[in-house]
Write a structure and sequence with these properties.
alpha+beta; 3-stranded antiparallel beta sheet
Length: 96
């Protein structure tokens, strides 16, 4: 994973509302959460939530799926693991 891809992911997570959304999605696990439920839980206006979700989708941090008329958001755990691995892979390599 390139540093540019990691930087974009971290940039999108650097906004308090997006970080709150992402953290809530992490709590929901692989099943994800319906956008409507997320909006009610976080008390965020629909247009604002849509904007922040779009930012997280563009960074490939979340995936959306539709079930009938309901749109669900789920964390892209592969991407999350890649971002974490970016920091962990070379951890302490300079220690003697």
């Amino acid at each position: 994973m390139t540093i540019e891809v990691i930087a974009k992911a971290l940039k999108e997570l650097g906004h308090p509302t997006r970080l709150t959304i992402f953290k809530r999605l992490v709590l929901s696990g692989q099943q994800g959460i319906a956008v409507g439920s997320l909006q009610q839980e976080l008390d965020v206006p629909g247009s604002t939530l849509s904007h922040h979700i779009s930012s997280l989708v563009s960074a490939d941090l979340i995936i959306q799926r539709r079930e009938g008329r309901t749109l669900f958001c789920v964390v892209n755990y592969e991407k999350l693991q890649a971002v974490i691995a970016f920091f962990q892979d070379d951890c302490c390599i300079d220690e003697t």
